[in-house]
Amino acid sequence: MRVSAIGCTALLLVAVGACGGRESGGDSGTAASGQCQGQQTTGITDKSIKLGGIYPLSGPASAYGDIPKGIKAYFDYVNAEKGGIGGRTVEFIVRDDGYQPPKAVEEARRLVEQDQVFALFQTLGTPSTTATWDYANQRKVPQVFVATGASKWGTDGAHPWTIGWQPNYVSEARVYAQYLKAEQPSAKIAVLFQNDDFGKDLLNGFKRAIEGTQLTIVAEQSYEVTDPSIDPQMRNLAGSKADVFLNITTPKFGSQALAADVRNTGWNPLHILNNVAASITVLKPVGFDNVQGVVSSSYYKDPNDPTWATDAEMTLYKQKVKQYAPGADPNIPYLTFGWAVANSFHKAMDAAKCPTREGLRDSVRDLRNVPIDMLLPGVTLSTGQGDAFPIESMQLMTFKGQRWELFGKVIDTRKVFGPLTG
């Protein structure tokens, strides 16, 4: 048990934040004591808070450009109808790095030094976040809830100002390995992966998870984000005649791999698509008839799933996206992701003991089963001493008809596989 006087105080604050959430419009700003004196208040006042996000609005990963639309819709809603976060109006500045790490560094510097943001809220992509986290930590700027599941955000002790949000890639890989052990315990597996920290993290996690089993990887192919096509890699993988195809890609290449799988009519493997490419926008161009039975995983509610048709949070989300992000399609899951992570930031700020950069840094690392209404039932935010992974629960899903369909139970990878450590 991780209990201390400080921990209990944080727990109480999280509980208050969880109960109040967006409804709490009071000022949480001024500290009751001098404990916050001397801490950084750049980008935050009693009435406003400035955040900066870095996304690939252009380039090979531009599909992720829908995420900040969901975030901004949430913040605009909270600003207009709930008095902001703790009485502070949120200004969310979005920069485009084109999925290019050097550009991400340039934009991070611009946000911190020119725009003087309070925090870098969301830098998308493992390469871009890797390129910027040294800078963020040297400047002691919170880089919170980054949009990448690389395991190092939770295992590295040298970067306390940076933390992830979504389930890490190693835990996701473990879930797929567990599924295959039960369904196809002797399967031969072919893998396509992005040749960077993202792809290697998930692939290596999968390899470790199948050690000691009869599951074997019989073919591997990598691609670069600058490649125009992955058709040559897919032809090589099809030649393996593997039983399972593990597709570790970002959206553009995920769609290409699905299409190539269809064209290789002599090869009909079980297709596992990693979560970051499992959006409806990836599958639709291939044709829904051609992607039936594809397996993936999730941890937040799918706006296309009728299970959530009368869900209060989903109803609110769709109403407010239409109101505050006119022209955006609320049925695109990347917007739903944005809404959920923005709500998570809101809860973390509600729980912070100090309205400072240090206060936010500490708050995101001391979240105790904080509910986020857009996450799947049973999935909460939880961090603490020795555990810097906010979300580590997922549920498997398969594509049927025109949507993803959840199956099985929510898997808490902490309990099933043990904690992930550096």
From TrEMBL:
Name of the protein: Leucine-binding protein domain-containing protein
Keywords noted in UniProt: Signal
SUPFAM superfamilies named among the record's database cross-references: Periplasmic binding protein-like I (SSF53822)
Coiled-coil intervals, chain numbering: none
A Pfam family the protein falls into: Peripla_BP_6
Signal peptide positions on this chain: 1-20
Organism annotation: Nonomuraea coxensis DSM 45129
Record bears the keyword Signal: yes
InterPro entries: Leu-bd, Peripla_BP_I
Boundaries of every Leucine-binding protein domain copy: 48-400
Record PROSITE patterns: PROKAR_LIPOPROTEIN
Gene3D superfamilies found in the cross-reference section: 3.40.50.2300
Family recorded in the similarity comment: Belongs to the leucine-binding protein family.
